Please model this.
Amino acid sequence: MPALFLYTSAMNNRAARRNEERRLNNQLARERAEVRVAPPARARHTTELRLLAGRGTISDAQARAGERLYADWFNAGRSPRVVANLSPVSGQPPMEAQERQFDAERRFTAAIRAVGQLLSPILVHVCLLDEKAGQWAKTNGRPEGDGHALLRAALDGLVGYYAGN
Model:
């Protein structure tokens, strides 16, 4: 019995020495390494509409209308897929799901038509694709300040449409 105790005690001592050696090596490596702290990444859950509403560029009602347009667009199945759907297909989806998707498609199309052909592109760019209004204006050959003014006008039309429905 004493031999087993001595063997176990020796194994524990060896493990303790190895752990201490690893700890010291890690500490030296941390001291030698240059630690670079990355700037905090912008939270992706903050949309461009919420940022503009937070700055006071657009009202909360306008931001809610833009988010409602996005919800209809997403629920209509128009958002781009990031990954493939590899689940097996076994027939049609339930009728309620098809009807909800059809209703969302109808609401989205009606809202875009209510805003009009001239203002709907900036809504798509900012509300659906989550891009900056100034970038849209620059891309379309307008001064950057026009982007916010046109976005406010488009969102006002959207607020009016959703208020009536």
User: Anything to note?
Assistant: Residues 2-32 form the longest helix (31 residues).
